[in-house]
Amino acid sequence: MSLQIINQGEQKISVKLQGMPLQYANALRRICLNGVPIFAIDTVDILENSSILADEGIAHRLGLIPLKTELSAIETSGDSDRIMLTLDSGDSIETRTIFSGEIESQDDTIKPISEKIPIVTLAPNQRIKFEAHARLGRGIEHAKWNSSNIATLTETDKDDEHILTVETTGALEPKDIILASINELSNRLDKFKETVSGLK
After folding, report:
1. Which H helix or E strand runs over 191?
2. What are the pLDDT digits (tens) for 67-87?
3. 38-137 has which fold?
């Protein structure tokens, strides 16, 4: 089996898989989509909210903001604790939009992928203040933990040759999604072999 990068950018990567049966290639595609762990906001404590958007609406929007995740740092430290993120808009006499760039994280490596994602627009004298916690999760639990926007598999004219294309949400580099998915698939196959060998 071989893997060759045929196209790579900041948001998308395409690799050629050779000598890999279709069922394994498709399993790899599915893991790329929702099987690689990333951070996402899981719980939100609203301390103050005088905006027109309900607490639940703000919490929902926060959960869908992709967070940059450094898998290498997590694997090295073995730390999977929750990460706290906070925001206090303060008071303003003008109407303004609160963006993701105003969120402060206790870990500089785990933060919104963009500073320009709108959260809520505040009228004069309105304010929001919250404490949120992000944790590692997988897309099979909820779409907010999907590491990829899309993961497609196409066949070529040759047998056992497929093109896997992955587009990241921004939480991980496209190449890191592929590498992490290969390791995950290998681990799952090893566990499956152990289970089968233990059957009588």
Report:
1. helix 174-197
2. 999 877 665 445 557 899 999
3. RNA Polymerase Alpha Subunit; Chain A, domain 2 (2.170.120)
